[in-house]
Amino acid sequence: MGDNKDDHSSPKEENPVLDSETPQPGQSHEDNSLEAIVRQFQDSMSVGKQHKFWETQPVGQFKDVGDTNLPEGPIEPATPLSEVKQEPYNLPAQYEWTTCDMESDETCNEVYALLKNNYVEDDENMFRFNYSKEFLSWALRPPGYYKSWHIGVRAKTSKKLVAFITGIPARIRVRGEVVKMAEVNFLCVHKKLRSKRLAPVMIKEVTRRVHLENIWQAAYTAGVVLPTPVTTAQYWHRSLNPKKLIDVGFSRLGARMTMSRTIKLYKLPDSPATPGFRKMELHDVPAVTRLLRDYLAQFAVAPYFDEDDVEHWLRPVENVIDSFVVESPETHEITDFCSFYTLPSSILGNQNYSTLKAAYSYYNVSNKTPLLQLMNDALIVAKQKDFDVFNALDVMFNESFVKELKFGPGDGQLHYYLYNYRLQQALRPSELGLVLL
User: Fold this and answer.
1) How far is CA 353 from CA 96, 142, 320, in A?
2) Are residues 151 and 81 in the same domain?
3) In a structure prediction context, what are the per-residue pLDDT tens digits for the chain, which is 437 residues long?
4) Domain that holds residue 242
5) Number of H helices, E strands in the chain
6) Is residue 22 part of a domain?
7) What is the spatial distance between Cα 29 and Cα 154, in angstroms, rounded to a whole number?
8) Is 405 a catalytic residue?
9) Is residue 133 a part of any domain in this protein?
10) pTM summary value
């Protein structure tokens, strides 16, 4: 459920904004059609190796693309719990399973170190995701989480943690139906063990443990094409600290652009423009939950959040998640909401900088405040907090603001998948209301 360590290609800016007269080189939607993705898949022999595994799994298969006779919904029915395999899958002899207790500082440190050194890099190996320990604790311990779904592999002799995969429970609405699912993430195998074919065994093991809780569906993302994406989203990047981004090779100076012109192009106001724009607080949870549920109802696939979920996922946590509300100065009603999470990347092999501080757009609800204005305010507060870049996927209504707010398209694409759930037709990214970390 989430093969390959390249879980969400660590994105880099492909085409910086050159100057205001230059048209934005956007990704055309034709490239994103499922037929194009299938072609890309068939042309790519390296992915073909994983195909062996995914052909055996209850996921949409490429041969079925466009077959409208297949019903939407579960591909395989739930089996009686007594028939679920009770003991773990076999690992190669020198390795053993371990359950990673994310409440333990020691284990959290081990997981942090494994991911920091071995998780997703960009294609040129210039940047690698660096999830903080606080972030991992937040991402992996939502309401109702199962410790047994935080799975590690250790070397038997040294006890060193060499691989990791996780699931967390979620309620995801697919069209009219709310489905209990696992969100599977953080599949990471130590660089020296990539040839050992550990990933398929780990995916089968997390699947087994999810089944033991009577959950039969899952959602996951990958930077690679597997059978079969329900949609493919494009990363967009907004420079907040253009000089640093150019110095470290994340962006490049546009043709006919000087550094001072570039800095001026990306300059933002000192403070948000929207009256009543402020940090979200605990007492805002009921209002934010109502806003978010109404808003997410518009999308074909989206999480189904209750107040406990909103309190966990959206209440601000320093250096993890930032959330802001707009409170009407007249009525004190909460009218709008925006949020972004903090995911730095290590900068590999640069003398001057070791970390790229990136904000990722999360859930944003625009009611009274235009989305463009709301997101510009989000950029302003991210800049105040010393972020270098603000990233957004073209899911939900994000496409409506990226060009206007001087985001450039990145070279990272993110493919979304459902396990044991078929959609008759692939979605446009704008029909998706789900952001996975």
Assistant:
1) 37, 33, 21
2) yes
3) 543 333 444 556 654 433 322 223 333 333 445 555 555 544 444 444 446 889 999 999 988 888 888 899 999 999 999 999 999 999 999 999 999 999 999 999 999 999 999 999 888 889 999 999 999 999 999 999 999 999 999 999 999 999 999 999 999 999 999 999 999 999 999 999 998 989 999 999 999 999 999 999 999 999 999 999 999 999 999 999 999 999 999 999 988 999 999 999 999 999 999 999 999 999 999 999 999 999 999 999 999 999 999 999 999 999 999 999 999 999 999 999 999 999 999 999 999 999 999 999 999 999 999 999 999 999 999 999 999 999 999 999 999 999 999 999 998 899 999 999 999 999 999 999 999 99
4) 232-415+427-431
5) 11, 16
6) no
7) 43
8) no
9) yes
10) 0.90
> How do 217-222 and 177-189 pair as beta strands?
parallel
| CA diameter of the chain | 68
Q: How far is the C-alpha of 26 from the C-alpha of 398, rounded, in Å?
A: 13
Judge if 205 and 305 occupy the same domain. Answer: no
Question: Based on the structure, what is the number of domains in the chain?
Answer: 2
Strands across the sheet containing 355-356: 127-129, 345-347, 355-356
Domain boundary among 213, 229, 245: 229
CATH number of the domain at 190, please: 3.40.630.170
> Do 237 and 209 fall within a single domain?
no
Query: How many Å apart are CA 100 and CA 322, to the nearest integer?
Result: 27
Give the active site residue among 115, 291, 436, 437: 437
For residue 374, is it within any domain?
yes
How many residues make up the chain in this entry?
437
Whether the CB-CB separation of 202 and 383 falls below 8 Å is answered with: no
- Smallest CA-to-CA distance from 245 within 357, 85, 341, 103 is with 357
